[in-house]
Design goal:
CATH architecture: Roll
Low-confidence stretches: none
Order of helices and strands: EEHEEEHEEEHHH
CATH topology: Structural Genomics Hypothetical 15.5 Kd Protein In mrcA-pckA Intergenic Region, Chain A
Strand content: 25-35%
Radius of gyration: 17 Å
Structural class: alpha+beta
Mean pLDDT: 93
Strand order of the largest sheet: 5-4-3-6-7-1-2-8
CATH class: Alpha Beta
CATH superfamily: MM3350-like
Length: 189
């Protein structure tokens, strides 16, 4: 176990739960990043479009955007008031990130390593990953598996409509880390 200094770099592995083969990203972020800003990092790194609600869950506590208009009956902590280092303190600590409550995309965020802070590093940074993010609104992990089965068979009766819905080709193995990092640099300040 490593104690977290005042400011360090967190190496996180973000894995989409239930994806087979696994869909994941390895990102570097400052330990003092707010959960609100981390949400943007996750959206860009994974390939989501930020069109749905989200939440973090750690030790039975929920963290999300603060908005009284949603009318939720459960208590939610304001994610902008919490730093990641308050929830993840040692190597191998983890928390859950859920995106799109309808489709229920659940991610495990694992703190792989705590690295010394180096101000010459451009953060956040995606350093590795595997596979494309599922398309938004495809029905969660089960809907995504069905979509992949359909796309693997051009003779399937749903193939043409799925291709039209996707707007063209979809390669589940494709991942452009360079493009992810361009977007992280542009949108996460």
């Amino acid at each position: 176990m490593t104690a977290t200094p005042l400011r360090s770099i967190y190496q996180l592995k973000v894995t989409l739960n239930g994806s087979k083969p696994p869909i994941w990203r390895r990102v570097l972020v400052p330990s003092n990043i707010t959960l609100g800003k981390l949400h943007l990092v996750l959206q860009i790194s994974m390939g989501w479009t930020n069109n749905h609600l989200h939440q973090y869950i750690s030790d039975g506590v929920f963290y999300s955007i603060q908005d009284d208009d949603f009318g939720f009956d459960m208590e939610v902590e304001n994610e902008d008031k919490y730093k990641l280092s308050q929830l993840l303190k040692s190597d191998k600590d983890s928390l859950k990130y859920e995106y799109d409550f309808g489709d229920g995309w659940e991610h495990k965020i694992l703190l792989e390593k705590i690295l010394p802070f180096d101000k010459s590093n451009q953060l956040p940074l995606c350093v590795k990953g595997k596979r494309a993010c599922p398309p938004e609104d495809c029905g969660g992990i089960w809907g995504y598996q069905e979509l992949l089965e359909t796309l693997s068979n051009p003779n399937d009766s749903e193939y043409e409509s799925m291709m039209e819905w996707l707007g063209g080709d979809f390669n589940p193995e494709e991942l452009d880390i360079e493009e992810i990092n361009k977007m992280l640099f542009e949108y996460v300040k």
